[in-house]
Design brief:
about 400 residues, mainly beta, SH3 type barrels, 4 domains, 5-stranded antiparallel β-sheet, about 10% helix
Length: about 400
Amino acid sequence: MRIKVTSDTLFKLAPKLSNELADSEKVFVKNGTEYEIEFYTEVEGNHLRVELANVTLGTPPTFTWYVFKPDVEVTGSPIRLRVTSDTLFKLKPAISSELSDQEKVFVKNGTEFELHSFLPASGNHVRVAIANAFLGPENRNTWYAYNPDIKIDGHKIDLRVISDTLFKAKPALSSQLEDKEKIFVPNRTNFELQSYGEAEGNHVKVALSGAFLGPENRNTWYAFGPDIQIEGTEPNNKPQDTNTAQPLNPAQPSNPGKALRFPGFSGVYYTNSPILQGGNFTWGEATHDGTRIPVSADVVYGMIRIAKAMEEIRKIFGNRVIRVNSWYRDPATNARVGGASRSRHLVGDAVDFVIPGYHPYDVFAELDRWWGSKGGLASATVFTHIDSRGYRARWSYGF
């Protein structure tokens, strides 16, 4: 991650007006200067707090500085957007004729941008956070672009702290840890991640990219799930899966279908029977018509957990029949269909689905706030994904 100075500016030891600081509390930095940074935090007064990675400034030498946000760009993202047809970037995902001139900006075919991130938005739009440019009369970097007019390449994973928190060397209560095993991280701090995965006690194990924190310069920490959000996905997460089990409306068939037995459960279950009593989603949909049998009781509980969410989604969309593309996937199947290496489908609490009559981006936009920090939500142009991992994760598959 890098920070590029785009206008002669001052790096400061506090997020204040420069005339409120002593000469020893600020240093002049020339337009065009670039520094590697470990992370940045958005703070008051439209400033960024940046942690320089391999250089110090000032006297005494200091790594931590504040800079006026409009004077810099955070760059170094591997994600690139290329405009493939003359288009308008918009402040809302709406038809351009419904927007004022101040709410849209013309972008010419062939223009390229570096992106911090991108997410699905309603009306087949993509919400893009531009890393290396500010557009429009208000110098904004977040816009909505019409998906058919752009092409996005590249992937990365970001962590954003959404509540003051502690990063910990172990997934334990902070009171059980020594001072050197925990570090305070303020709200609105942003990191790039090498990888992440769930851990015990509602924690997430994160491997920071290029950031080393604490007295022991660790880059691997445990974060409390409700205090963070993950945005983005790994490069090879491009699942292509179909389901032979047909949706039943509702799941009350006279033919029970195939008999199934699950680890840790003594009863017999059937492919055409509802997962939840009186529900609409069947064990056949969850097990790929009985061909993907859960490897443990925990996977079965995961199926039940996400089935409750799927029933709620069905109600949100007017009890419309939902087509399930993919539910539980064993490791071999997950690899074969192109799923992420740590996919929630492996633990049974994830579903890829289609609601006929709705574009998946519209489904994402409708469910985003409702699902909140309960788990992951993502869309491709051909399906929507939901999972109940227990913390907020959002991404676009990019296809």
